[in-house]
Write a structure and sequence with these properties.
Layout: H1 3-15, E1 20-24, H2 38-41, E2 48-52, H3 57-61, H4 66-94, E3 108-111, E4 114-117, H5 121-127
Antiparallel strand pairs: 1-2, 3-4
Length: about 130
């Protein structure tokens, strides 16, 4: 990814109100099956971009219904972040790169009786410096 494209992505994230983002090199992660690594999605993947929004603290500290607030926040936020992921991919592809969005929640796969998303976003977010 070139500096100009990165600048456009950062501007897009800012306009959409997404304060957390980071980039890392694609790699297999310790303890995670290889089929859940970025090259399993795009063979020649050169970078991974993660973006996120914080959870309002009031949801976590609510005296009652905290899990219901969290569920609703997550449901709305996943759709929003997925839409932004699509926009980022379209921006990158307009500049000649191949890009694949990895959605926030579904689909899931089961491997060795453990649930995985298409990629382990929590671990990749750590690699990108935001998790």
């Amino acid at each position: 990814m070139m500096k100009g494209e990165l600048s456009k992505i950062i501007n897009l994230l800012g306009k959409r109100g997404i304060p957390l983002s980071g980039i890392s090199e694609p790699k297999e992660l310790a303890g995670i099956p290889a089929q859940f690594s970025p090259p399993s999605i795009l063979k020649d993947c050169r970078s991974v971009l993660c973006h996120a929004v914080p959870i309002p603290k009031g949801i976590l500290h609510a005296e009652s219904n905290s899990s219901l607030f969290f569920w609703r926040f997550s449901n709305m936020t996943y759709r929003f972040l997925d839409t932004v992921s699509n926009e980022i991919c379209m921006l990158l592809e307009a500049h000649g790169h191949l890009a694949a969005p990895i959605y926030s929640c579904f689909p899931w796969k089961v491997c060795d009786k453990k649930f995985y998303g298409l990629l382990p976003l929590a671990y990749l977010s750590q690699e990108c410096g935001i998790g």
